[in-house]
Amino acid sequence: MAYKTLIVEIEEHVALIRLNRPDALNALNAELMSELADAIGQADRNDKVRCVVLTGSEKAFAAGADIKEMSQKGFVDVFGKDFFTPETEEILRCRKPIIAAVSGYALGGGCELAMLCDFIIAADTAKFGQPEINLGVIAGIGGTQRLTRFVGKSKSMDMHLTGRFMDADEAERAGLVSRVVPAKKLMEEVMAIADKIAEKSRLTTIAVKECVNRSYETTLREGLLFERRVFHSLFATDDQKEGMAAFLEKREPQFRDK
Ligand code: CAA
Predict the structure, then answer these.
(1) Environment class of residue 219 by beta-carbon count within 10 Å: exposed (0-12), middle (13-18) or buried (19+)?
(2) Spatial CB neighbours of 149, under 8 Å, sequence gap ≥ 6
(3) What is the pLDDT of residues 178-217, one digit of tens each?
(4) Do 8 and 16 touch, CB atoms closer than 8 A?
(5) Which residues belong to the active site?
């Protein structure tokens, strides 16, 4: 499918999805959200793809939900159509790892979209924020819940109540992003990380994603049991035999997703 608001490239085993509404700093309008859900669904179903990278432009990952479009909506529209739910559910359904490569602004829905990914690599130019309060609303794609789990209550309250922006260093210190890299090297570094993930057994990347995400959904005791059982079940795979044999034979493993 040809997209109007995205550029999608498959490079080896990595699907690179670039948000592409430069005139609106990649603001998330209905068309972009629908295309993004479609592109991520397609990447998930494409056997060649083993990792997904989501990025924006140098200036903006995404400056939030499209304010022009939202300004025309009323309660009946947003509640009646469950605004943002179908697309975010599709993104969450993806079993393949999704890395957010963030340069410039990741604000409001843009910050929330980055947090919907599995982890965030930030350029040193990145700015994160939840400024919805300045528009007379609050975050609506999970910001109050996810940002709080990433950075804790105090900083999350600060960000949501003041609408201030957090730079890349603060985001790394606070645990929102996993690494900060120079802006010029962002895509090179992120693609190298994605390539590394693509070399792993797909069974184990799915297992990691399910287990880490489970830690947000359940008690520690249940989460530990879930992890232990998934760990046990991986002993039924050829890739466990191969991974351990390769270590003992001092060679690189050849995983076959079996
Ligand atoms: N929606 C629609 N258009 C947007 C936009 C948005 N979220 N953010 C930027 N744009 C547009 C601007 O209107 C402008 O368009 P024109 O050239 O046609 O006027 C263009 O992008 C460039 O923006 P600026 O001229 O404002 O660029 P700047 O460099 O001066 O400022 C900025 C950059 C600080 C990011 C500023 O654009 C800004 O504050 N944007 C809005 C950020 C925001 O409030 N995001 C939250 C949205 S609400 C939300 O996301 C709800 C939710 O949780 C689901």
Answers:
(1) exposed
(2) 216
(3) 999 999 999 999 999 999 999 999 999 999 999 999 999 9
(4) yes
(5) 65, 109, 112, 132
